[in-house]
Recover the amino acids of this structure.
């Protein structure tokens, strides 16, 4: 069997939140551990080059990049098992993105729901980078011949685009330059929703901090956010299907299930008949149990920026070495003289 090549990224804006953790990072850690034991390569990066597609205060971007690296390590990403770096330290990402811009189609990018959501009514005022964002994301994974890309459900469309770009490039230039990557999406927790609105995903760009649980929130803050989370007045049912029209209730049950690696039915078997006055404290307890140790490690690590920089610089050198052959093969396939 050929080895797995696992690659994924996260934007270093704001805090690592529960949606990132349950939707993606927990899976990163599990796959990293299994892949290290099997002898495959795993690469995780901070997508700082993606972050600049909207205005970010430069000093905050620098600080957030280090903080997000600390948060990932606190959550279990292990620089001894996975290559951890930030995109800006590996110019091959930007280079390959440009090379792929000749293959990606405007019509494909026009269909990306994330661009539509983020540009909103002001499409003409959005940056060119925000529109071309998925091409850089394709470069991120194709550069390393990624076979598996662990992400939350909201990134599925971008990964499908990466496959389309890879397939068209291979066909147009009649060479198998790129591997088609498979998105790996957790069956539970694929999409964690806002605590204030069960129809919007939990996101770092939500203007209300009460909408999300940050991995840096202390136990009191977690308790307060769950207490104030939007719910309804009905007790919990036994059958998960009865939560279909109760998005907020379904989200809280889903979070509880994901934390314990259970199904919604397992959680409801214990809590059916209870109202949220009883369910919310149980959920808070579970959250604090999971997030408490991560937060403690995070607080210790963020006090060591020099150590974080050392880890990211080492990771970038390893990533650049792994990127070299694919980047050269792409230039050569295009007939570009080097
Ligand atoms: P980002 O930074 O928004 O999120 C990082 C990861 O967290 C997942 N996620 C969620 N999962 C479930 N519920 C939620 N509410 C939730 N919010 C976020 C995301 O699916 C993602 O896996 N474009 C990417 C970063 C990126 C990338 C890549 C990912 C850049 N290049 C190459 C994979 C491969 C992004 O903005 O994710």
């Amino acid at each position: 069997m050929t080895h797995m090549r696992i690659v994924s990224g996260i934007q270093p804006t704001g805090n690592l939140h529960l949606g990132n953790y349950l939707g993606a990072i927990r899976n990163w850690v599990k796959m990293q551990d299994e892949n290290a034991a099997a002898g495959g390569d795993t690469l995780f990066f901070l997508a700082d080059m993606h972050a600049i597609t909207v205005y970010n205060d430069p000093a905050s971007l620098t600080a957030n990049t280090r903080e997000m690296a600390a948060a990932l390590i606190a959550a279990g990403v292990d620089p001894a098992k996975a290559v951890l770096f930030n995109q800006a330290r590996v110019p091959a990402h930007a280079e390959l993105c440009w090379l792929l811009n000749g293959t990606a189609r405007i019509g494909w990018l026009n269909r990306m729901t994330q661009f539509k959501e983020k540009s909103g009514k002001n499409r003409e005022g959005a940056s060119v980078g925000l529109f071309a964002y998925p091409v850089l994301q394709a470069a991120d994974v194709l550069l390393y011949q990624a076979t598996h890309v662990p992400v939350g459900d909201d990134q599925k469309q971008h990964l499908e685009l990466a496959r389309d770009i890879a397939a068209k490039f291979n066909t147009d230039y009649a060479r198998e330059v790129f591997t088609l990557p498979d998105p790996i999406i957790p069956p539970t927790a694929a999409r964690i929703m806002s605590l204030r609105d069960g129809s919007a995903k939990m996101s770092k760009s939500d203007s209300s901090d009460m909408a999300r649980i940050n991995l840096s929130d202390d136990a009191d803050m977690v308790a307060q956010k769950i207490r104030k989370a939007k719910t309804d007045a009905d007790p919990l049912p036994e059958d998960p299907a009865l939560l279909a029209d109760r998005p907020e209730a379904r989200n809280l049950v889903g979070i509880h299930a994901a934390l314990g690696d259970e199904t919604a039915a397992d959680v409801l078997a214990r809590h059916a008949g209870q109202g949220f006055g009883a369910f919310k404290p149980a959920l808070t307890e579970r959250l604090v149990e999971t997030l408490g140790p991560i937060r403690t490690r995070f607080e210790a690590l963020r006090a060591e920026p020099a150590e974080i920089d050392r880890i990211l610089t080492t990771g970038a050198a390893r990533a650049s070495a792994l990127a070299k052959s694919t980047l050269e093969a792409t230039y050569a396939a295009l007939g570009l003289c080097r």
About this structure: The mean pLDDT is 96. Strands lie at 5-10, 41-46, 83-86, 148-150, 182-184. The pocket of tryptophanyl-5'AMP is lined by residues 8-11, 19-20, 23-24, 47, 50, 137, 140-141, 149, 151-152, 154-155, 191-192, 201-203 (CB under 6 Å).
